């Protein structure tokens, strides 16, 4: 037998055609959309809830959104070493101040404790807390307890939530550099999605750390992201596992080590944020 018969064909790391639509020239128009956005009801806040495994980059995404909108790298949400357990322990809503103004954007991004999958009990507690958060029952400052869900007698329980307290879009934040999700994580995300669907809350996903997952993308996001087979495959696999449509999964690179903002990184974050607002706002119109 010739040696060539046993050789496997080299696996292509890049696709011949782009797998995602991305107009890099839309950065300014996306920024204008976000800056001018207002919910239909006067004085209402549009609430975005982030959830996902520890280390996926939820807090870093909040900081990245703030950095893009401020035009400089900045930190509003505390973050931990990505190799360590999730840093967020409290339910916290972050409002983003309009650059060079005293007012804030009419949306709030809520961060919460990472998914807990070490036991069936903690998974159930996590789902219950996410459901309460989506319904507007959890007040800012609540410290999550992995063994016990928030009780109605707790001072942080909001027994009469208004429209601004409720979540309008649920965002699952996932790490693109993780090759495969554990079964318990997938089940946890699916359970949370079912609760969100029952409440009429749309769901999207943010795929972070695309630069870690794909080194060529790190070298040139604009040139290589849309043809990266690895990122394409991660999006497809995540969509298959949890059921979020591929066109509702947005790859981004968070600001983590950078000292200055970058136009291409900004463009991805603004594209994702605009779509999150649009998708959530569609559900608001149905209310």
UniProtKB/TrEMBL annotation:
InterPro entries: P-loop_NTPase (IPR027417)
Biological process, per Gene Ontology: immune response
Name of the protein in question: Interferon-induced protein 44
UniProt organism field: Fundulus heteroclitus
Upper lineage: Eukaryota, Metazoa, Chordata, Craniata, Vertebrata
């Amino acid at each position: 037998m010739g040696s060539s018969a046993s050789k496997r064909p080299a696996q292509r790391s890049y696709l011949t055609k782009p797998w995602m639509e991305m107009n890099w020239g839309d950065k300014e128009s996306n920024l204008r959309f976000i800056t001018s956005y207002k919910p239909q009801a006067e004085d209402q806040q549009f609430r975005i809830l982030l959830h996902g495994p520890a280390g996926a980059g939820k807090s870093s995404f909040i900081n990245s959104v703030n950095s893009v909108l401020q035009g400089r790298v900045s930190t509003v949400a505390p973050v931990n070493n990505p190799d360590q357990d999730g840093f967020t322990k409290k339910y916290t809503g972050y409002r983003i101040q309009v650059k060079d103004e005293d007012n804030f954007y009419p949306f709030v991004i809520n961060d919460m404790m990472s998914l807990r999958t070490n036991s069936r009990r903690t998974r159930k507690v996590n789902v219950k807390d996410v459901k309460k958060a989506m319904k507007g029952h959890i007040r800012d400052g609540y410290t999550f307890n992995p063994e016990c869900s928030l009780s109605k007698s707790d001072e942080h329980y909001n027994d009469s939530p208004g429209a601004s307290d409720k979540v309008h879009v649920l965002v699952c934040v996932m790490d693109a550099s993780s090759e495969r999700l554990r079964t318990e994580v997938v089940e946890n995300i699916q359970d949370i999605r079912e609760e969100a669907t029952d409440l009429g809350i749309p769901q999207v996903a943010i795929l972070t750390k695309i630069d870690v997952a794909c080194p060529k993308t790190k070298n040139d996001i604009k040139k290589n992201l849309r043809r990266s087979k690895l990122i394409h495959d991660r999006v497809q696999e995540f969509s298959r596992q949890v059921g979020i449509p591929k066109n509702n999964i947005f790859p981004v690179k968070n600001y983590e080590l950078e000292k200055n903002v970058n136009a291409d990184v900004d463009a991805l974050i603004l594209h994702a944020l605009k779509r999150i607002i649009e998708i959530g706002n569609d559900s608001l119109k149905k209310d």
